[in-house]
Amino acid sequence: MKETISIKMIFTIIKRHLVLIISTAVVGMMVAGAALVFLVTPMYEARTQILVTQSAQTEMNSNIQTSEVQANIQLVNTYTALLKSPRILDDVARNLDGNFTAGQLMSKITVASEHNSQVINVSVTDPNQAVAAEIANEIAASFAKITPNVMNVNNIEILAKATALENPKPVSPSSIIFIGGGAAGGMVIGFAIMIIRVIFNTRFKDESDVLDELGIPLLGNIAKIPGQKSL
User: Fold this and answer.
1) Number of domains forming the structure of the chain
2) Is residue 206 part of a domain?
C-alpha cells in the first residue's frame, strides 16, 4: 500500500500523539532532575588574580615603559603555561600534604589572562569550594615563590586571594541545561514511539486505503449512525 504523507497529515499525527510527547518530555525532566540530585556531583569554583611585571625603573622615558608593558603582556602566555607546569603543581601538591597529585591538580585548574593586561586569573573547581580556594591560593603562592628564579622577574603581586562563600552556587552542572536536555531527550523518545506506531499501524483509515489495497471500485458508503460506537 503506497501512502503519501502531507504536511497537514504530519501535524494531525503529532496532534494525535501530543499527550504522549508531553508525557515523555516530563518523564525525561524528572529523570534528569533525579540524576542531578542523586548521581551528579556539583562543582564549585574559587578564583585568584596575579599581576606579573618587571621591576620598576626610576629613570625611564614613557616609550621604554610602554615597550616593557607590551613585552610583559606577550609573556603572559608563558606565565599561564608555567602556572600549570609540574614545577609549580608538584610544589603545590607538597604544600597540600599530598592530598592531590600534580595530575589531579591540573584537571582542576583553568588559567586565563585579562585582555591586553598583565593580570592572570587562576580558577580552580572542586566539589568543596573551601578546598578549591585553598588550592588556588597555594598555586598563587608557589607561583610567586618559583617564578622569579625561572623567569627573572621580581615583581609578582597577588591582587585577590580566593575565598570560600557561605552559600556558594555550583558552576556545574547547569540545572537548566541538564533538565532541558532531559526534556529534549524525552521528546525524542516520544517522537520515536509515535513514528513506530504510525509505521506499524496497518488499519484502514478511509475508503481510499481500501481501494489502493484491493484494487476494486467503490460501490457506496454506509453512513455512520449517530450515537452508535464504531466497530
Assistant:
1) 2
2) yes
Mean pLDDT (whole number) for 77-101? 91
Burial class (CB within 10 angstroms; exposed 0-12, middle 13-18, buried 19+) of 137: buried
Supply 13's cell numbers.
499525527
Verify that 98 and 144 share a domain, yes or no: yes
At how many degrees (to 10) do helices 86-95 and 129-151 cross? 130
Q: Where in the sequence is the domain holding 25, given as residue range(s)?
A: 7-37+173-211
Identify whether 79 is part of a domain: yes
Instruction: Confirm whether 2 is domain-assigned.
Output: no
Q: Is it the case that residue 145 has pLDDT exceeding 60?
A: yes
